[in-house]
Every structure is written in C-alpha cells, then in structure tokens.
Amino acid sequence: MTTPGSTAGVARRLLLNGEAMRFEVEPAPTGGGPKYNPFTSEQAREWLLPQIRSTRAGLRELPDELRAVDRIYIEAKLFPNYLAPTYYPEALLGYIGAVPVGSRSDASILRTAAQARPSGTRRLILAVDDTALERLESLVDAPGPGRSAQQAFEQIRRLEEVASPAVSSVLRVDPEQSIGEQVSSLYEAVLHPRAVRSGEPVAIDAATLDRWVSLVESYGGTVHGDFLRTVGGLTFVPVRVADADAPQLARFNPLRALRPMPAIRPRPRFGLRSASRIRPPTVPDPIADVTTVAVFDGGVRDPDQLGLFPIPVIDLTPEPIEADDVDHGTGVTGAVLYGLLRSGDQAAQPPLPVESFRVMPPPYDPGDLDGYWILDQIKDILTEGRHKLVNLSLGPTLAVEDDNEPNRWTAELDQLAWERDIVFVVAAGNDGNQDRDTGLHRVQVPADMANAISVGACDVPAPDRPWTRAPYSSMGPGRPGNRTQPLGVQFGGVDDRMFDVLCADGTFLEATGTSFAAPVVTHALADLTTRLPRVNSSVLRAFPVHFAERHRAFKKRQDEFGFGRLPLSFADAMECTPDQVHVLFVDEIARGDIVGYQLPLPRYFTGPAKMSVTLAYASPVEPTQPTEYTSASLELTLRPHRNMFRFSPPTGSDEPAREIDLASSEARTLLMEGWKAGQEPVAKTLTNTTSLNEADLRDSGKWETLRHYRVNFTAGELDSARLEVRYVARRAGALDGSPTEVPFAMLVSVSDSGGNGTLYDDIAAQFTALRPVQRVAAGRVRLRGAQQNTWY
C-alpha cells in the first residue's frame, strides 16, 4: 500500500526553495491613456468656493477651548476617481500649507466616460494654520499666474467637499441610544496627530491635550490619564462623561472619535461534563522548539493534575481564579497543545512549547477598562520577543464597521505582527446571528487585523461533509487590507454536535464558539512549524489559506467562510501525487522592484492544467488612514506563455490589437507591416476585474495582505510560464519613495489535468534547485544562546 505522495515507495514531497527560480524583470511601460476627469477645475470652483467660505466662517467662531493651540483640522473629500496614490493632491496641499494627518472613509459617485455608480472614497483630514483656508479661498477664486498656483488649481477638481469635522462623524454612538439622560458612561476618545515629521505622524501636543482634559472636567467628567496610549500618531484616552454631554465634547476640533468603551467578549456557556477521559501523551516534551506559543486567556486549572498541561502558567492578573474564565482558558490551551480531541483518545506529543498567560479576570471593577489593561499585558509579553505564534480567543465586544475607524487593539497588534513577525490566530467572534442591518454580525476586534489569521466556526470537523457556518460565527467583510474575514473556518461546535473542551483532569466540557475553533488552527500551525525547516509569519499565513477546503457556495458566501474550512493538520499538504506538485517560495522584495519567478512546469508541458497560487505578506499599517490602512501592495502578474504577445496596429489603423504567438508566421507578417509587439508576454487575469480604476482594484484585493487564486489552463496555453511580483508602497495615501523591503511567501500548486502520471517526477528532475521538504528532527533542542536558524 502506498501513500498519496508515493508510488512503489517513491516519496513525492512538497518542494522548497522556489525563490531560486527568481529572475529580474524590466518594468514594462504602464498607463491606460489620458486620465478621465469628470469635472474641470473651473466647475469645481462653483461648489468649493461656498463651502470654503462657510467653513472659514464657522471656524472663526470656534472658541479656544474647542481647538488646538496652533492649528485647526479640516476635511477634504476626494472624488473616487482620484483614490490612487498617483493622484494624491500633493501640489494643492503643499500650496496652502496643509499637513495630512489622517483620513476617513466616505461614499460618493464614481464617474467614468461610460457611467456613474456609487463607490467608496475618503476624506482627507488636514492640519492647517489660521491662514490656510484664506489661501485656499484665494486660490479657488482667482489662481495666480505662477507655476505652483497653476498646479495647485488644477488639482482642486479632485475635491468634492471641504468642511470642518461634523459632530456626527466624531461621536460614534448607537443611533437608538438615548443621550438625553444624565447617565455617566465610559468613552474612548481618539485624538488626531499634531503633525507629520519624516513621514511619520506625531502624537498630539501636551498643550492641546491639556485643553481636552480641561474641557472634559468642565463638564464634570473624568479623564483616565493612566491609560492614555499613543498608536501610530493617534492618542487613545478613556474618559467618563455624562451621555448628554457627549455631543458637546465631540465639538472639540482635534478629536477624531468619541465612542462608548467596549467590554470584553462574554465567555461561552459550558454544558455537561463527560465521564470518559483523555490520556496524556506518552512523550510530554514538544517535538521542536522553533518558537514558543503564547495563549492569553483565563489560565489553566490545576496544570499538574494529570500531566496534560506540562507548561508554564503565568498569572498576569492579581485577581483570584474564576471558574468560567479558567475553564475557558484550560480548554483553549488544551486545543493549542493537542488540537481536536475526542473522549478516549490519547493526546499526541505537543508540537511546540506553550505558555499560558492568565489575564482573566482583569483587576478592574467595573470592567470598563479591562480591554486597555489586557492589551497592555499582551504587548508587554510579546515585546520580549520569545513568542512568534499567539492565540487570542478573547477581545472587545466590538464588530468591525463600514466606517473603519481605527481601533487600538487592531492597530497595536498589527504593528506588533509587522515589527516582530508574529502570527496572531484570533477568534472571529460569536455574534454571527445578530442583526445584519446594523452590522453587529460582523467579525469582532481584533479579528479584523490585516496581518493575522481570523478564524470563524463551522458545524462539523473535517473530513465530514456537508459543512456550513456555525450560526453564531461572526462574518465578514473585514477592514481594508483584509476584507476577506474570517480568513477561514474550523470546527467550533453547534448545539447538536458540541465541541469537546478539555479539562485538566482529562474529562471534557461541552461548549461552542470560535474561541475553540481558533486554537485548533493554532495547533495545526504549531505542528506545521515542525514540518518545515524554516518558517516565518508569511509562510504560516499562506498554508491554511492555500490548503483550505472551499465550500460549494464559495463565491456567494465568502463573507461566511472566508477562503474555506481550514486544515486540521498539514501532514497531507507535505505530500504530492504523481500528477501534482506544491512549491513554496519565500523571498523579499524592495519597494518599486519587479521580480519574476519561473513556474515549475516541465519542458514541453503545455497543459491542460490547474494552478492555485497563494501570496501572503505582512504590511506596515497606518491607523490614521483607515481606508489606506496597509502601506504595502504586492501585485501578482501571471504570464502563462513565453511567446504569446499583444500586437498593436500601426498608427492610424482602426484594426484591434491581437494576441499572437511571436514564433508564428503571422507574427512575422505583422511585424513587416509595421505592427509592434509588446515588451512582455501577455498576462492572464488573476483577479475578478480588468478595470484599472483604483476603487475596483481595491475591491479585487490590490492592498490585501493575503491573496488566493485558482486558474485553469487549456492545452497549449502554457509554455515556460512565469509569475511576477511588484511592490508598491504608499504613505498617507500618497506614493511612498522611502526604501523598504517586504518579506513574503508564495505557494504554487500545479496539477496535470491530463493525468499523465509524470508531472512531479519531471519537475523534480528538471528543477534541481527545488528541494523536497524534510521534517524538523523530533526532540531537537537548540542550545541556549545558539543562533535561531529556523525562523526566516
């Protein structure tokens, strides 16, 4: 009997070192003709001039206690036609002396030569001095003859509106919430950056912050200064005020948001306890020590009782243990250690060391400040640098919203993920059955992270079918940068098939929740690190998406399932069949570069074939720019045939362009007649759009940190196929020219639809730089102080 990846004892393993097939690519000419401008600057003058004058009049009446010491904040709404970084109104902002310190999401109408349709857009948040609006009014009314003035005036056509911040945009409360009663509530205040220096936003100055504190106190409120935190230039500070006073406080000009402080998510309810027990592993030590997994939860009850939890349990909270918290923490930690278990099983050897950090219950009563305190503990531990894989089955009760206002949990953890190459596995939340009209059913913070793995729940574990979303599992879409949320689903239990939650004595409690689906994925990723010689966060994010099981209604219900049901184990992913190959590419790319990779296809293989590609990378994030949250975009281009080129007709001809084999006699004839061949072979579209409009490109995933594509090729469509990766960077919505490098991982799977039975062997023989994967040696111990060589 042979395994799926072997024939007569021949092992066919996943291939590594795909980056050895890299080659440099000369940038091809870009551009789709002249830019379509829906309005002229003269037309824009007609609506902008009254807006500017009205805004100036309103801000002149703003008392000192409602403004910053040396500046005011205004907003400028862009038409959707100008969302791309190349159309950023830099000349206009520079002319009036405006400093862009953030943006908000908004809606507008995208106008093209053929149609007008609703589209998302953004409002630039600008810090200006008292003379900036006067200069803007003069420019719009009568631009001067100088080059700078003319360039600035040309860009006013990109603005739909200029206004001061609206209280309705700042005060983020439930429309049905009564604010007429003198009820005191805890709010989270978010203050704009003061300025931008060397491209980085600078947090609010002390003098302006003092004005905010004085304003709150003048209304009888309290500022919790001990919990003031800055993230990406934004200042987050909790304040307790009467609900009736919140609209007045929201008039403070430097204030970005004022919203109720969310509580920590409630724990799932536990059901019956099983009579049978699990047996501890015969080998309690982990398989490898590539990294240590961190679990932040309710701790572990009696970890030494049966030997199932031979791990450190660190109490970060001084509060005594509470039963529901510790039962939840024990179950989550058990799933991280052993994956999905059933009564009567013997637990397998844990793949990696695990540390449990008890943060529940937090030391605050009432618990309004719990979220801030817990997040502080997580940050403090992770900045030590010992943990590269983190399970979070907790977070605030706060669903991601369409306005995408920055959240401290999401922003802090995304920055940690980028700076320290950490993989966060986050439970998506259990409010999927809440009201969809209000958006309460959507994934909960911090499952909206751009650099994490968010996990929803399904009703049955693999390989059982059919499967669907568990009714409680929170849904997408997520925030820009990772709209596909959750990334996938895993078994989390339902009423008629509960999740077996491990207890320290080896028995089980019944429960349901994404809290338990997430650690099953964490366990699978921990096991994956022992199967690969080197990993990083991008590798660990690529694998679950690449090998996810698609639902039969994938396209219609992606907001429910993400990319599909995630694997319980990646053991099968390490194996290939004779007609199939998996290749892992791990590389990095500098800003502005384009690199190519030859695809692993045998010489003379022309199809038919199927290919799947997954690209994963971590991106720097800009919390001040919710619509431009991720700073890096890696664009993929597939060129399936080395000789297929696009031929353009001679100037003056009305014939359409053609795609022709360069080696054909027809191509030679056209060249003699004055036709011109493109610089690069024809590209095959990977996304669901051929539009060059930035709004459409964003919807198709241009700035997403995780992409997955599946492509079919007919016979003759393939010949020396290649993939190209291009890195584009932005900062504050404009093109960024500063030098940066982004690591990424790419998984490519190719299968021979013809079933000839030789694809893998032919690839292995031809591409000798590719190496079959070998599992990390069991029990390998890294000496103290030795160089960590298993993490890229």
UniProtKB/TrEMBL annotation:
Gene Ontology molecular function: serine-type endopeptidase activity
Pfam families noted in UniProt:
Peptidase_S8 (PF00082)
Q: Which residues form the Peptidase S8/S53 domain?
A: 318-564
According to the lineage, what is the superkingdom?
Answer: Bacteria
Decide whether keyword Nucleus is in the record: no
Gene3D superfamilies registered for this protein in UniProt: Peptidase S8/S53 domain (3.40.50.200)
Catalytic residues (UniProt): D297, H328, S515
Question: Keyword set for this entry?
Answer: Hydrolase, Protease, Serine protease
Q: Which GO biological process categories is it annotated with?
A: proteolysis
InterPro entries per the UniProt record, alphabetical: Peptidase_S8/S53_dom, Peptidase_S8/S53_dom_sf, Peptidase_S8_subtilisin-like, Y4bN_pept_dom
Which PANTHER family does this chain map to? CEREVISIN-RELATED, PEPTIDASE S8
Q: According to its UniProt record, which protein family does this protein belong to?
A: Belongs to the peptidase S8 family.
- Could you tell me what this protein is called? Peptidase S8/S53 domain-containing protein
Its ancestry begins with:
Bacteria, Bacillati, Actinomycetota, Actinomycetes, Mycobacteriales
